[in-house]
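Sharing in case it's useful to others searching the archive later.

Someone asked me privately for the predicted structure of Nicotinamidase-related amidase, so I'm posting the question and my answer publicly. Question first, with the sequence:
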Amino acid sequence: MPGTVIVANHYQNENCHPDGKVKVGIAADADWRWQRLDSAKRLFAGARAAGVPIVHVRLAVDPEYRDVIVNTALIREWLELGAWKEGTWGTEFVDGLGPMAGEHVVTHTRNSGFQDSTLAQVLFKLGARHLICCGVSTAYTVEGTVRHAADIGYEVTVASDACSTATEAQHDAALAAMSVLAEIKSVDAILAAL
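And my answer, the predicted structure tokens:
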């Protein structure tokens, strides 16, 4: 599919690894943790085999939080937990979901992958017209990125089983909210189309 790019949000230790500080992406006791991360790995492998570019969007902020506007309960929680500090284990990619040579990595400091980042420029350079979005958390970074992408003219698909949030109910609600802006498809369906 020419013009298709995978936008992979926040597959990082802080919110994906059981020892990460942030649990709004995958609850500490979530039995679906490895299933969702394995689905993302299958998506990445299929995209790479098909020559579809992957852009990895990572969250990382100044260790002293000087670049963070503290205006939400979620961001206040980051500060209380000491989370998302650049240069720490938490901001590294979780095993198996990091970039390979030649793949783009974009760093940002908010929910939307476009906010405070070079994502728009990278997608332009790649000739993107259709984005396949995935990541952790469905209800925050994925939904924020999908809304932004739809607003600026991209066709968007959400890889539903390569996303996760704190509860299944919250995940399902986020997918339902995005369904009027994006196609919601399983990784298997996406891979079949690639």
